[in-house]
Amino acid sequence: MIKLIRVLLLTLVILASVPSIAEAARRKKKVAPPQATEVSLPIPRSELPLETYLPPVIEPDPITIELGVSTWSPSGFSRGSRTAGDSDLKTGSVPMISINRMSKISDRAKGLYSKLGLSAAQLKRTVNLDRVGGPIAVEQEMTLASARLGVEYRTRKFMSDVVQPYAGLAALPTIGLASRSALESNVTTLGVPFELAAGAAFSPSFMPGPSLGVHGSSLGLGLQYLFGSVGGSRADGLGVQGSLRVDL
Predict the structure, then answer these.
(1) DSSP secondary structure string, 4-72?
(2) Is the pTM of this model over 0.85?
(3) Residue 58 lies in a domain
(4) Which one in 21, 39, 74, 132 has a CA-CA gap of 20 to 30 Å to 46?
(5) Does some domain include residue 25?
(6) Is-contact 167 184, C-beta < 8 A?
(7) What angle (nearest 5°) sits at the alpha carbon of residue 148, between those of residues 115 and 60?
(8) Does a structural domain hold residue 203?
(9) What are the counts of helices (DSSP H) followed by strands (DSSP E) for the chain?
(10) Highest-scoring range by mean pLDDT, 43-57, 83-97, 103-117, 125-139
């Protein structure tokens, strides 16, 4: 009996000591902290360029504005009168003045430009009329106003880009106006003469260069020949033409 009691007590002591032993074992055991894992993935380089593509800026071809003055005078612009017969009108004190706008026709037609503009000239004649007291000088003035519809061809520039030859052809729809005079009543006459022009544009160093929207400027000098008629009067004549050309 006493032995049985001793065995039971020993069993209770062993069972009571088991949790302490387990806890001590857990404390002695070192648990390693979790470690972060680094993963590196290769990123392929793009084969496409990353730079921003800017298309080239294409500037439009410049437009040329021309102011011209010509010594043109017809050689046979004849008109009748009430009493003195036919007589010719010549250019008076005011020369032919013109303003034109020229622009490139297309990239395929290299050197070819359209030429649109206006021009005006004043013709004059003086006729001596016989009167009782003696001859009297009577004047008549006529204004020719024309539109210009034509083309101009320009070659490449020479002499270090100073000289550029040109040649042109244009139709000139024209109206002639004259007020009433001792020679005629009011006159309104129409015609379409043609114009041939040839010369060269010069760009010397003293001419203004590109600035304030102006691409350049030049001075033109050439010959101008008109042929055809206005209201039955021949407009054939040759003149020297000077001009100022501004590229905008």
Answers:
(1) HHHHHHHHHHHHHHHHHHHHHHHHHSPPPPP-------PPPPPSS--SPP-PPP-PPPPPEEEEEEE--
(2) no
(3) no
(4) 39
(5) no
(6) no
(7) 20
(8) yes
(9) 1, 15
(10) 103-117
The single residue listed with the structure tokens 């040329």 is 64
63/102 Cα distance (integer angstroms): 6
CB atoms within 10 A of CB 139: 12
Residue with tokens 């016989």: 130
Place of tokens 């005006």: 120
Domains of the chain: total: 1
- 176 sits in which H/E element: strand 174-178
Which CATH number belongs to the domain containing residue 243 in this structure?
Answer: 2.40.160.20
CA-nearest of 126, 124, 125, 122 to 144 is: 122
Confidence of residue 13 (pLDDT cuts 50, 70, 90): low
Examine residue 114 and state whether it is found in any structural domain, yes or no.
yes
How far apart are the C-alpha atoms of 107 and 129, rounded to whole Å?
Answer: 60
> What's the gap between Cα 11 and its chain centre?
115
Integer Cα distance of 121 and 114 in angstroms? 22
